[in-house]
């Protein structure tokens, strides 16, 4: 049975059929006459193309008018078949509806040509075949999209696929900057709640001291009221601690970045002024261990400010050196705290050790603000000294931080830490633990598994401080490369 040669004949009743002496079949349909010569061979499966003739947004703003081109060295436009990067538009979210006009290079009974569409990034499967040459996609979410179309002619032969790529920006309220603003507003709200509760408690306490002299019988009731209010403050601070914990880099993320590491994180109070932060951009892994001015709630606010600014810096690009990241962080801290260096103003800031592991180049970049990096290689300690200035206002704040670069070997162990561990008082003479003793301990245990190192360091600190109160937050990280 031969079907394809007769696809052009309408679906009507045949009035007459006749084969002449030359073997030509004549078919009469109403007032139309068709002939079929079986000796003439015709290829019905010759390739042809689907075409995207036009792409436009709401209001008929044209994005594409059917031709891809590139600029030649002489400044002229040269027609090309594939879409170049400069013709892949990025649409604002307000123009997230796109209409296409499609066609094909098969011109026999064009009105019966069918099309099927697929929008990569939006559709799950190709559309059913239909004759609509103006498909429309409304209210696309932010992301990258590639529109594809293919045609099917009256003989059932499919064309090649035509492509058109574009992207849609996120609305302003779903950008990274907006999320940082939300976090800062939430932190400001918590801070306001704590301040208001504290002021209220102070005022009520002063009032109670006056009333006690006159009405000692009410002391018990007043104590219960104060205990309830203190519990409210503790609940608020515990809530702030949960928020701070949520902002720290999740353990799952760090586990994906590093194979063998530990982080000893011991806040002195419920909320910590120390923090750690990790990020990965391609082949570059960024690690930060920081110590903010103060501890408790004030230190916690500074740590959230530091985490927010580091995240903001990374959104600008992943090409910055370790020193450049510290320079930018210092500028943002000074600007946000309105520090000018005048006597009596805030000197808040942070000490910080930051290093970047470039796995492609096999190097480590390090920059430090008062906090060093300790490298142990072949049972030998190598210490990379930091710059003696903080992240904040300082007499040398116009000086750039130093960018240390060294090649790493398999088995190298890197340690970064705040001053909470070496500055802890204790021992038989109630003196500081000191960084020298800490480095000797690290050298002694560096070949042990990382989790065992963490347990040894924690146990040693507890034994050293004994009955003494811990004077500061503690954060210490070890990483085996």
Describe the model:
With 481 residues, the protein is α+β, with helices and mostly antiparallel strands. 29% of the residues lie in helices and 29% in strands. It has 7 helices and 25 strands. It has a 5-stranded antiparallel sheet, covered by helices on one side. The protein has a 5-stranded antiparallel sheet with strand order 15-16-17-18-21, with helices on both faces. It has a 4-stranded antiparallel sheet with strand order 5-4-9-11, with no helix packed on it. Helix 1 (176-214) packs antiparallel against helix 2 (219-247). The radius of gyration is 36 Å and the shape is elongated. It starts with 15 loop residues before the first strand and ends with a strand.
Q: Ranges with pLDDT <50 over ≥5 residues?
A: none
State the end-to-end CA separation.
Answer: 71 Å
Sheet having the most strands: 5 strands, antiparallel
Q: Indicate the overall shape.
A: elongated
Helix content: 25-40%
- Counting H and I runs of at least 4 residues, what is the number of helices? 7
Major sheet strand order:
14-25-22-19-20
Q: How large is the radius of gyration?
A: 36 Å
Count all strands and give the number.
25
The fraction of residues in strands falls at 25-35%
SS-based structural class? Answer: alpha+beta
- Look at the structure and give the mean pLDDT: 90
């Amino acid at each position: 049975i031969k079907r394809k040669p007769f696809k052009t004949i309408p679906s009507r009743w045949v009035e007459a059929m006749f084969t002449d002496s030359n073997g030509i079949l004549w078919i009469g349909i109403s007032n139309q006459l068709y002939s079929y010569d079986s000796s003439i061979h015709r290829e019905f499966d010759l390739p042809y193309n689907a075409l995207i003739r036009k792409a436009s947004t709401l209001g008929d703003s044209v994005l594409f008018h059917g031709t891809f081109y590139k600029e030649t060295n002489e400044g002229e436009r040269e027609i090309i078949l594939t879409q170049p990067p400069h013709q892949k538009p990025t649409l604002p979210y307000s123009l997230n509806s796109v209409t296409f006009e499609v066609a094909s290079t098969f011109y026999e009974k064009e009105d019966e040509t069918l099309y099927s569409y697929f929008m990569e990034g939006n559709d799950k499967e190709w559309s059913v075949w239909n004759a609509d040459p103006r498909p429309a996609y409304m209210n696309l979410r932010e992301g990258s999209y590639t529109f594809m179309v293919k045609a099917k002619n009256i003989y059932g032969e499919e064309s090649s696929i035509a492509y058109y790529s574009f992207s849609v920006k996120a609305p302003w309220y779903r950008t990274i900057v907006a999320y940082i603003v939300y976090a800062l507003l939430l932190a400001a709200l918590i801070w306001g709640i704590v301040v208001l509760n504290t002021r209220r408690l102070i005022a009520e306490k002063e009032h109670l001291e006056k009333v006690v002299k006159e009405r000692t019988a009410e002391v018990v009731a007043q104590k219960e009221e104060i205990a309830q209010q203190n519990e409210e403050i503790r609940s608020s601070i515990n809530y702030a601690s949960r928020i701070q914990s949520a902002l720290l880099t999740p353990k799952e993320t760090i586990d994906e970045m590093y194979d063998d590491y530990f982080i000893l994180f011991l806040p002195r109070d419920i909320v910590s002024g120390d923090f750690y932060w990790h990020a990965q951009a391609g082949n570059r892994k960024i690690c930060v261990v920081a110590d903010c001015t103060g501890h408790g709630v004030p230190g916690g606010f500074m740590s959230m400010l530091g985490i927010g600014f580091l995240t903001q810096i990374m959104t600008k690009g992943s090409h910055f050196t370790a020193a450049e990241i510290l320079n930018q962080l210092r500028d943002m801290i000074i600007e946000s705290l309105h520090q000018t260096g005048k006597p009596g103003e805030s000197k808040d800031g942070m000490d910080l050790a930051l290093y970047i592991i470039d796995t492609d180049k096999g190097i480590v970049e390090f920059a430090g603000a008062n906090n060093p990096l300790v490298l142990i290689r072949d049972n030998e300690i190598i210490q990379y000294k930091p710059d003696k200035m903080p992240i904040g206002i300082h007499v040398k704040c116009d000086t750039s931080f130093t960018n240390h670069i060294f090649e790493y070997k398999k088995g190298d162990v890197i340690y970064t830490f705040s001053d909470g561990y070496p500055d802890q008082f204790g021992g038989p003479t109630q003196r500081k633990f000191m960084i020298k003793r800490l480095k000797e301990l690290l050298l002694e245990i560096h070949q042990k598994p990382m989790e065992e190192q963490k347990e040894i360091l924690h146990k040693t600190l507890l034994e050293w401080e004994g009955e003494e109160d811990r004077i500061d937050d503690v954060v210490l990280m070890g990483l085996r490369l």
